[in-house]
């Protein structure tokens, strides 16, 4: 079967007008180029393009068919995400779509993939429900899910006599994250004493912090405030400025992008679990990514760059394995598929198409020459160390 294409898109109008050629493989990157998560989006796109380049040996071709990537901006709005994905599948005739950044947008996009019977590789949206109750067979996810975040952080933070409060954004990412974290803690001996949810655009955390402090007051033993947050606002730094230590409370959180790690510098010794930090994984793919990113951008690859690269490599490996861009052939090829990424081996689980992958227990250090708290590896939490629930 002849394959179609993908390419780094220039002007959207040009791409819409350009005819579909028989020797093209078309990939849509549907992501929030503008909006509150645009820093994440830029990393994801750079990573996707690097992954396609790496997996094709720099040719940007698969079996002689040229890859063409068409970019679509969701603006972090579910209705727009849904519309532009339909446009990509229908008008642009793409073979596979990748994205988006926001869990709320991803949930709106899932039925579109089912309607058009086309693959959507979700990267990096996190909510469990994407490969859980809202999942359909056309959805694969290279990004980690809330349960992987939660279980790895429970391993890092849980224990007998530990009491935890949570602070999260009041939408799918935050609520799914806390639900999974609560469940993961059950076998650790720790307990959650209070859950606090605030709007995604919150910048003043005074009232939320006071409710947390009041709920934790009088509790004996080790006490932690676990923060699940995406985007701006810096709740960790602002709550730390309120001196939670006077209530015996330690702040804890998972990993994040380098810009967000600046707040971690105020909390040396803080522990948690992270999806990626460029100095942690030791493998040839990550070595290539770090070198190329430094050479091209003058900075190390970040959290979502690694995820985008994993998605790009998955696209190429899936098409090679399937021998075409036929959707049913791709699903057969991708179920159970293993491939190498900057994080090491990933595997698409057959039951829900979630990528199983390592996570990393870290401890924050202040290091000379770095303006952020460095997440230093305590131990790798491998695929076999986490029992990730199947929720669909």
UniProtKB/TrEMBL annotation:
SUPFAM superfamilies recorded: Periplasmic binding protein-like I
Keywords associated with the record: Amino-acid transport, Signal, Transport
Segments forming domain Leucine-binding protein: 24-365
Coiled coil: none
Signal peptide: 1-22
GO biological process: amino acid transport
CDD domains for the chain: PBP1_SBP-like
Superkingdom of origin: Bacteria
Family: Belongs to the leucine-binding protein family.
Protein name: Amino acid/amide ABC transporter substrate-binding protein (HAAT family)
């Amino acid at each position: 079967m002849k394959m179609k294409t993908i390419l780094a898109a220039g002007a959207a109008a040009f791409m819409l007008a350009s005819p579909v050629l028989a020797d093209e493989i078309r990939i849509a990157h549907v992501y929030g180029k503008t909006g509150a998560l645009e820093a994440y989006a830029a990393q994801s796109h750079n990573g996707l393009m690097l992954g396609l380049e790496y997996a094709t040996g720099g040719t940007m071709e698969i079996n002689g068919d040229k890859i063409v990537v068409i970019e679509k901006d969701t603006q972090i709005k579910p209705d727009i995400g849904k519309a532009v994905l339909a446009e990509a599948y229908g008008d642009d005739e793409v073979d596979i779509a990748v994205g988006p950044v926001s869990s709320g947008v991803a949930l709106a996009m899932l039925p579109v993939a089912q309607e058009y019977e086309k693959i959507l590789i979700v990267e990096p949206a996190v909510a469990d429900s994407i490969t859980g109750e809202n999942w359909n067979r056309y959805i694969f996810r290279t990004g980690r899910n809330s349960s992987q975040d939660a279980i790895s952080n429970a391993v890092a933070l849980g224990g007998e006599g530990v009491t935890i409060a949570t602070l999260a954004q009041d939408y799918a990412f935050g609520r799914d994250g806390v639900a999974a974290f609560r469940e993961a803690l059950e076998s650790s001996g720790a307990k959650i004493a209070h859950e606090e949810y605030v709007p995604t655009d919150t910048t003043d955390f005074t009232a939320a912090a006071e409710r947390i402090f009041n709920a934790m007051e009088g509790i004996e033993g080790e006490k932690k405030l676990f923060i699940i947050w995406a985007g701006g606002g810096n709740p960790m730094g602002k709550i730390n400025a309120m001196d939670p230590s006077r209530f015996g409370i330690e702040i804890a959180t998972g990993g994040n992008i380098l810009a967000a790690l600046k707040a971690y510098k105020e909390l040396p010794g803080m522990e948690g679990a992270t999806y990626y930090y460029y100095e942690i994984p030791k493998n040839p793919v990550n070595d290539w990514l770090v070198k190329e990113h430094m050479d091209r951008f003058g900075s190390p690859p970040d959290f979502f760059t690694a995820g985008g690269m994993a998605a790009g490599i998955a696209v190429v490996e899936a098409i090679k394995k399937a021998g075409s861009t036929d959707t049913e052939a791709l699903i057969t090829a991708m179920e159970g598929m293993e491939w190498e990424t900057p994080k090491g081996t990933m595997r698409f689980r057959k039951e829900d198409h979630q990528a199983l992958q390592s996570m990393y227990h870290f401890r924050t250090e202040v290091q000379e020459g770095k303006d952020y708290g460095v997440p230093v590896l305590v131990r790798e939490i491998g695929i076999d160390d986490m029992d990730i629930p199947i929720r669909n």
